[in-house]
Write a structure and sequence with these properties.
Layout lengths: L8 H12 L10 H6 L7 H17 L2 H14 L17 H4 L2 H10 L2 H16 L17 E3 H17 L6 H14 E2 L4 E2 L2 E3 L19 H17 L3 H19 L25 H16 L5 H18 E3 L5 E3 L2 E2 L16 H6 L2 E2 L3 H18 L1
Antiparallel strand pairs: 1-4, 2-3, 5-6, 7-8
Helix pairs in contact: 3-4, 3-15, 6-7, 8-9, 8-10, 9-11, 10-11, 10-12, 12-13, 12-15
Length: 382
């Protein structure tokens, strides 16, 4: 029973194994890069894992997590602040995500190169194309599109920058979240659509609303984690209150779809029980983390801490398994899902599409939020 507290030590050993087997140019948790044979480059998947390791360092007090994170990021950031494999002209919000770890590294090490890299990524947001609603385009190759993923990828970094260097003006971030609530929230289902094309012309978009057709779990997970992490950083009560309202509504909405037995959530959230649908690890971990952290910060009722813990234990029971080699692995992770572009019409936002993407083990999109959940559990036990 992996969900029992006395067996959480196995999770510590699992994290240790991932670190011992990883190098900055070859992390075990970046399955997309491994399968694609990609050269080392700055990316959001590594950013998620390094974020989780910095959290682990803070909660456990063990310097090995911070030391690994610093060595990892040091490999990618040059003395002039340039970043290995980063291309600003792609205007890819995913590439901003890893920048959030630079603030903690700069504070603790004092290395100016980290601040220079922060400024480079902030420059991207300054130039980032925007929709008619004044939201950031998700990427240059996705014109006029807002994705829930992008709120996590860019806005946590953006808020940290505004807090540390930007004079504490969070109005742009609040406005972008409010627009997503206005245009991408389904009032009947109480869930958020994965994406919206503000031009309402792309093949996957509803011609009336511009929204995609389904509720993908991990997209809602990204959105939820973005909100609670930002709320934690905010020092402006008006901005915090605005986002707390959106966050509470989102958590209330998704909680009704929790699996009764495991507390987890389905890949296509509102289609539990439909053939081919499955309980998915990364999105369930994100929702569980958001709920536990939200309750800890006093934003949510304590029942959400219980729901989050149930989901975490459910993930442990269902998807933590021991291989023939005796190694612990975390399964049930959707490798990747997206919408379009035009030359990839398989990614049409349909139910059939979301359940067709590969399901893998040990990818950081699942491992990182799982570790963050684990750290929330450790907090509660301190």
């Amino acid at each position: 029973m992996y969900a029992q507290t006395d067996n959480y030590k196995k999770i510590d050993n699992y994290i240790e194994r991932l670190l011992e087997g990883s190098a900055p140019d070859a992390p075990l948790w970046n399955i997309e890069s491994i399968r694609g044979g990609k050269a080392p480059h700055w990316n959001y998947i590594d950013g998620c894992m390094i974020t989780a390791l910095l959290c682990a360092s803070e909660i456990t007090g063990e310097g090995k997590y911070f030391d690994f994170a610093e060595r990892f990021i040091d490999y990618y950031v040059s003395e002039d602040g340039s970043i290995r494999g980063y291309k600003q002209e792609k205007y890819n919000l995913d590439d901003v995500n890893e920048g959030r770890v630079l603030f903690d590294l700069y504070k603790k090490t004092g290395k100016e190169k980290y601040k220079k890299a922060i400024l480079l990524l902030r420059e991207q947001l300054e130039k980032q194309p925007r929709t008619v609603t004044r939201n950031f385009w998700h990427k240059q190759i996705y014109p006029n599109q807002i994705w829930l993923d992008g709120l996590y990828m860019a806005q946590v970094f953006y808020v940290r920058y505004q807090k540390e260097f930007g004079g504490g003006d969070y109005s742009d971030t609040v406005s972008q979240f409010k627009n997503v609530r206005k245009y991408m929230f389904n009032e009947e289902k109480k869930l958020y659509y994965h994406g919206m094309d503000c031009s309402k012309t792309v093949f996957w978009a509803d011609p009336e609303t511009g929204c995609s057709g389904n509720f993908w779990l991990r997209a809602i997970g990204w959105f939820s984690v973005a909100l609670i992490d930002i709320i934690d950083y905010l020092d402006d009560e008006n901005a915090k209150n605005e986002l707390c309202g959106i966050f509470r509504e989102a958590m209330e909405g998704i909680l009704q779809y929790a699996d009764a037995e495991t507390g987890m959530y389905y890949q296509v959230v509102d289609c539990g029980g439909r053939e081919g649908n499955y309980l998915e690890t990364s999105g369930s971990s994100m929702i569980a983390y958001a709920m536990m952290k939200g309750a800890r910060l006093g934003v949510l009722d304590k029942k959400y801490a219980e729901a989050g813990k149930k989901a975490f234990d459910g993930i442990c029971e269902k998807y933590l398994s021991i291989s023939e080699e005796g190694e612990l692995n975390l399964g049930g992770i959707c490798l990747v899902a997206g919408l379009g572009p035009e030359d990839n019409r398989r990614r049409d936002g349909s139910f059939e599409y979301y359940i067709s993407e590969p399901v893998v083990e040990n990818d950081a999109k699942g491992v990182a939020p799982f570790v963050l959940c684990y750290m929330e559990v450790k907090r509660s036990e301190q």
